[in-house]
Fold these 4 entries.
Entry 1:
Amino acid sequence: MPSDSDLLDTTAIPQSFHIDKRAGEIAEQGAGDPDDLLTTTEVAEWLGVSTQWVEIGRSKGYGPPFIVLSPRRIRYKRSSVLGFLAERQFASTAKYSKRRTLPNDAL
């Protein structure tokens, strides 16, 4: 059972995301040149999440890999987002549950 401090820890990185179960179908929608550079808004629309989710994931280290063009210009390479989605695809629910139960220090 999680301790009270675990429940209050807002800096903890989630072990799974709601997009994990849809990763395969989301990846299929991402057709295009693998070298395309996408904005935060474009990635959020593609993944079906808010721009805030993408921004928070970027700052906490659980979002798709990104490229910093300048302090105010962040882009996501389409191939990197597809790789991010590929890491979230599972062949069975047994593999999905194993990934979700990793201890925090294994991340």
Entry 2:
Amino acid sequence: MKRGRAERPTRITARVAVVLAAAFLAILVLLHFLESKFDPSWRMISDYEIGNYGWMMTLAFFCWGMETGQGVGKLRHSPPRATFDGRPTRCSNAAVLCFLLS
């Protein structure tokens, strides 16, 4: 079965989403080691922005938001039956906006 050009944006979007999710997790794990004074068992991950490496947590949140945005992009390029009349897309757009504003 030959893949057409219409499938290319969704494949690229999916790969970018995976890379951004991996970057978020890698930054978060790195911050657990760099900011050892924060106990992740009872503190929120946003508390990492308070410390010396706050810019890294901002970058992690940016990666998380962009990864969610890539998921929305994947939904938009999916067949119509996969979007349930656009409702998940609108909810995902709201989630992306919240991540990027945080």
Entry 3:
Amino acid sequence: MGIDNIGICSGIVILMEQLIGDKISVISVYNRTKNIFSPVKIDWQGRIYIIKKIGYHHQLKIGGTLHHVFTVTDGNTDFRLDFDSEMLSWTLEEVSDGLAS
């Protein structure tokens, strides 16, 4: 796990991202009225993060498997999550300090 991207402007760090790739536990909800599936809580490295906002959600196929990718924030840290619809598993793909948003 290392720093993937740091942008520096006038000596001030404006963005820090780390590629992670860890399997994580996620509590998610499905709203049948709005037909929306979304993560609400992440358990990563023994710490619980409450999702306050979903930035975006998109779907992509990798091979024959549909993946749902979410960018979310707990208000301090931004996360990119991947839900594998075949394996029914979540992967934390990336973490950012949120300074860029």
Entry 4:
Amino acid sequence: MPLPKLSDDQVEWVIQQVAAYIDQQRQTYRRRALPLSQNQRVAMRPFFPASSLESARVVVLAGERVSNPSFYTELMKMGFEAQGPSQGSRACSSLSSVQPCRGPFWPVSLGLQAAKPD
């Protein structure tokens, strides 16, 4: 599906909204997030630089979900169509270096093909 044609002001607005949403969510979850375990870092080493794995943090959400951005409605008004699952239905959401997950975190939560050790 083609993307809607946006004015420069609309593009700037969307960029600002997305950046603010990611920053706000990252700050919310970072307080509770923990560094990756040694086993998680080893399993993901083929996919990410060591510096990314050292700075990554994970929080397992219990009884809560990451909310959709409040600006989704405005995007639909601009001509975007809802694409893919909502934030709340994803196993993990990527918020820069913080990954809030609805269940136990493992590389397969991110769609990586690393094998989970027994």
